[in-house]
Write a structure and sequence with these properties.
Elements: E1 4-10, H1 15-23, E2 30-37, H2 43-50, E3 55-57, H3 67-81, E4 85-88, H4 97-102, E5 107-111, H5 123-129, E6 134-141, E7 151-158, H6 165-188, E8 195-197
Parallel strand pairs: 1-2, 1-4, 2-3, 4-5, 7-8
Antiparallel strand pairs: 5-6, 6-7
Bound molecules: 5-O-phosphono-beta-D-ribofuranosylamine (GRF).
Length: 198
């Protein structure tokens, strides 16, 4: 059985990317084929290259707000890498419906909230402001609706007295690194049953 080709898109340090790369060993059904960023200086690109994974960058700033031109450029290294699955892992650009539809059913994202709560940004501060007693992260299929696709996994963490948004983000990030690899493994095996942790 050939392995699924997995491309990872990121914008920053890539701790989720690192967790995904570390998981794709042995009998895991996936193998990385590309790590791609919208920022040529993204720390995750250096980490991926150090692990021997092909990397590429398309600087969104070079397209001065022309999202379609940026996405056309972003599509090229992806088409060349021919991924079976794309994992968005801290990829901070909103993708158009056209771009997403090209990869329909094959693109995943990790979001730092218990979706459908807190789509969008500043999720930890919003959970604290709401007085939530628990919080967490979700992996979902990417659709045209921002943070709105079918849930493939969730991990829960407690909200503790005195938590700051950074405290909560750190607690959630630990669970992200467990959840995303578990979801990718199951998804690459063709199993869409949700992974539930915590
Ligand atoms: C994570 O908190 C993830 O939930 C969000 O962006 C962050 C990415 O962190 N989408 P990293 O680049 O994977 O370390």
């Amino acid at each position: 059985m050939s392995k699924a080709r997995v491309a990872i898109l990121l914008s920053g340090g890539g701790s989720n990317m690192e967790a995904l790369l570390a998981s794709m060993q042995g009998d895991h059904p996936g193998r990385p084929c590309l790590v791609l960023s919208n920022d040529p200086k993204a720390g995750g690109l250096v980490k991926a290259a150090a692990r021997g994974v092909p990397v590429a960058a398309v600087d969104h700033r070079a397209f001065a707000g022309d999202r379609l031109a940026f996405e056309a450029a972003l599509m090229r290294p992806l088409i060349d890498a021919a991924p079976d699955i794309i994992c968005l892992a801290g990829f901070m650009r909103v993708l158009s419906a056209d771009f997403v539809s090209h990869w329909a059913g094959r693109m995943l994202n990790i979001h730092p909230s218990l979706l459908p709560k807190y789509r969008g940004l500043h999720t930890h501060a919003r959970a604290l402001a709401a007085g939530d007693k628990e919080h967490g992260c979700s992996v979902h299929e990417v659709t045209a609706e921002l943070d709105g696709g079918p849930i493939l996994g969730q991990a829960r963490v407690p909200v503790l007295e005195g938590d700051t948004p950074d405290d909560l983000a750190a607690r959630v990030l630990v669970m992200e690194h467990a959840l995303y690899p578990a979801v990718l493994r199951r998804f690459a095996d063709g199993d869409k049953r949700p992974v539930l942790l915590g």
